[in-house]
Amino acid sequence: TLTTGANPVLIGFMNECYNNTLNADIIFNVDIDGSLVYGTNGIEINMNAATEPHNCNWTLMSAPLTAGSHTFKVQWRVAAGTGTVVGSDSIPYNFWVMEMND
What we know:
- By secondary structure, the chain is mainly β.
- The protein has no helices and 10 strands.
- The two termini are 21 Å apart.
- The relative contact order is 0.42.
């Protein structure tokens, strides 16, 4: 949860991802106050080698929010197979939100 002014936020995510199925995407989305930023779509990361780690790093800028308290949640799903999102020594689990001011 973050209290902001009437400004957009910059959202970032940095983790390792795996999928046990070759070429099966892991699709990320962000929930802001109960609404998904990308609706039924998302940020797609292709797992081009089954079970090998991939850097699942991305950032996005939201539309301006209303002033007040906001809740942010990252969500992911797979197109096929079993996906895993983990932190590691080389890429620690990291999800952050930062208000952008003029």
